[in-house]
Specification:
By secondary structure, this protein is of the alpha/beta class. Helices cover about 35% and strands about 10% of the residues. The chain is built from 11 helices and 8 strands. It comes from Georgenia halophila.
Length: about 400
């Protein structure tokens, strides 16, 4: 039986940039309560594990020691350090910034260890997915890069190859940069076109360093891309490359800010389509990574109507017990949300989107902007792997 670990501690809500910031910790609290209400935590093959604070040596795998000390000092002194990205509108300074950020790294490292040491294992780091943090700078609501730290630990533990697939509307730049010149790590990011969204990177021609050409993969989708086209893009690029790379572990980031209701982005991807993408990742892990799958959260700023439902679906898929999209949401959870946020939430785990899509292998339409985006990536990357960019 495949054992699934979900990593959660209430202390994870301490990663809090303050009132009015989009990265509101209530999104985690509501998700955990929905997971409980839907019975995901009570599944017989699910273990909920606590999230420890990562040690400095864990952070140093991907962050400079000077940066870690500067983050710690900034929190203790209460003095903005804009040279390292702290004390900015995106990353306001708060007293426990080091400890709270290191706990998120500890969460994803705990998940990574469960996946690797209890193979075939699966795990979900709910608060993880802070994919923008760089080696020596905070960026895009991200102070420490838990995903990169977990991948680095997996490589140190003996993994020969890792595949990383990022579903966030924003380019997964920090993870890509950490492994830019490392052929062992395939990073695939499917995101809104960088000409229209932060961080302004992640073009198809960005394919990795001189020692790892083709290891960085970027699909830059036009604003307004919706369910069927988004799923088509994810499958058309991630599936053949993960199959070819044959990773020891599949690592995925599931930022749900690609949803049409998200206030910061311009994609139109429903909860139903994101659930289907999670199922695709499950299939890829089983077929090409020996069943080892580490999933994380990420962005997502419709904190009531979208984030809890997407990540509850994701956790259930990771656990091998997908939830039917038409399943009613427990009335007690809906009432609690109304009391806390004074916001009505949908009655079911679906918002009427689609999980159906036409596979790129069945034909390429050069007049379609999404197909052109897919083809630009395949042409830039596939030849480095000896793969034909044209559909079969």
């Amino acid at each position: 039986m495949v054992r699934t670990s979900i990593v959660w501690s209430d202390e994870l809500v301490g990663y809090d940039f303050g009132a009015g910031h989009p990265m509101a910790p209530v999104r985690l609290m509501l998700t955990v309560e929905l997971l409980r209400a839907m019975g995901v935590f009570d599944l017989p093959d699910v273990e909920v594990r606590p999230a420890p604070v990562a040690e400095d040596r864990d952070l140093h795998r991907v962050h400079t020691s000077d940066y870690v000390e500067a983050v710690r000092a900034a929190g203790e002194d209460g003095v903005a350090a804009e040279e390292i990205g702290l004390g900015t509108p995106d990353n306001p300074l708060f007293a426990e910034v080091h400890t709270a950020s290191a706990r998120i790294v500890g969460s994803t490292l705990t998940a990574a260890r469960a996946v690797w040491e209890e193979a075939p294992g699966r795990a979900f780091s709910l608060a993880g997915g802070l994919h923008h943090a760089m080696a020596a700078k905070a960026s895009g609501f991200c102070v420490y890069n838990d995903v990169a730290a977990a991948i680095a630990w997996l490589l140190e533990a003996g993994a020969a190859r890792i595949a990383y697939v990022d579903h966030d509307a924003h380019h997964g730049d920090g993870v890509e940069r950490a492994f830019w010149d490392d052929p062992r790590v395939l990073t695939v990011s499917v995101h809104q076109h960088p000409g229209t969204l932060f961080p302004g990177t992640g073009y198809p021609h960005d394919v990795g360093g001189s020692s790892a050409r083709g290891s960085a993969v970027n699909v830059a989708l036009p604003a307004g891309t919706s369910d069927a086209d988004w799923l088509r893009a994810v499958e058309a690029v991630a599936a053949p490359l993960v199959e070819h790379h044959r990773p020891d572990v599949l690592v995925t980031q599931h930022g749900c800010d690609c949803h049409g209701n998200d206030p910061l982005t311009e994609l139109e991807v429903s909860i139903d389509a994101q659930r289907r993408a999670a199922l695709l990742m499950s299939e890829l892990a089983d077929a090409h990574a020996g069943g080892r799958w580490l999933a994380t959260g990420g962005g997502g700023y419709d904190v009531v109507g979208v984030v809890p439902r997407v990540w509850t679906h994701l956790a259930a898929v990771v656990a091998g017990h997908p939830i039917d999209p038409e399943t009613p949401i427990p009335e007690a959870w809906r009432r609690a949300v109304l009391e806390v946020a004074n916001v009505d939430v949908p009655a079911t785990m679906s918002d009427g989107g689609t999980s159906e899509f036409a596979r790129f292998a069945d034909g390429y339409n050069p007049d379609d902007p999404v197909d052109r985006a897919i083809m630009a990536t395949r042409q830039a990357v596939f030849p480095w792997h000896g793969l034909d960019p044209m559909p079969d």
